[in-house]
């Protein structure tokens, strides 16, 4: 508005200069030489200055054009969660709680669940990009892959991701994804999880590893645990199911051939713990799980992380991004620092498993 008023004032001044250099004689305009010269020199100068002011008004500064995130009055956060189960639910809740604590009513969420279907996850992420959300939370590996395919501009934070190099097919992954992606990992120390198997079941000769073949991060964990168990002298057999439809059948094959089963942080397994337990428990085969949600449903013990706290950590990363305090392309993946040995008291008692004193009973 100031620029507009100045423009009008300058144009008026230019006009007045021209008028004052004129005289009317016999109804005709005549102009003295000095006045004409002054008008010809000053009017264009005034007009040029006015045009310059107009251009400045029409072209805001870089600060005005690219307002920093902290100037925003509200934020819309998109959430794509692969499937509903306790671990992923807890991570999403922790993420939302962290952002709500920071921004209050200024933050809102478009939270959607893909019900375990990767194509649905892709559709969800595409829709979130169309909404022009400020940031996307991708909860679980297929959700992260869908978000990465949908946008290379909107910040994407993953959570409940085991290994980002595997999930995003990054060779020689150094801990920082780069671009518009970062997040948190739920990867526990796999060597320590393998050690739990031999600690709790020293008489076991054969171990089975059970997971979904469609989840690359599950395969990564299975391969690492297999190496550690074999180094301890166990024979290890791998059993994979392609989806929830063949979980019970594959579990039945496993319990018929092993002394103990290990299940990594596998999303399909986590959503099918009842079906697994209905086969493994009657057969008397104990399960060591990669995370507490699976343990609560069908396992006797785990080296557990808190998925809620993992979500809070992811939320704090989002806050720093939204406030412009950090560049997501430079943010390394963050890990849960203090996993805890936990056990399932009900299932442990039912299977007659003796639990060492340094394990904490799950609630």
Question: How does this model look, in words?
Answer:
The chain has a 7-stranded mixed β-sheet, with helices on both faces. Strands 4-3-5-6-7-13 form a 6-stranded parallel β-sheet, with helices on both faces. The chain is elongated, with a radius of gyration of 33 Å. It has helices spanning 2-20, 33-58, 62-65, 86-103, 118-130, 141-150, 164-167, 190-200, 216-231, 247-255, 267-270, 273-283, 292-298, 307-322, 345-351, and strands spanning 22-25, 28-31, 75-81, 107-113, 135-139, 156-161, 181-185, 206-212, 235-241, 260-263, 287-289, 301-304, 334-335, 340-343, 360-361. 48% of the residues lie in helices and 20% in strands. The model is unreliable at 1-70 (pLDDT under 50). Strand 11, helix 13 and strand 12 form a beta-alpha-beta unit. It folds into 3 domains: 2-59; 74-186 and 307-332, Response regulator (Rossmann fold, 3-Layer(aba) Sandwich); 190-304 and 340-361, 3-Layer(aba) Sandwich (Rossmann fold), CATH 3.40.50. The chain starts with a helix and ends with a strand.
Identify the notable features of this structure and list them briefly:
single chain; 363 residues; alpha/beta; Rossmann fold; 3 domains; seven-stranded mixed beta sheet; six-stranded parallel beta sheet; elongated
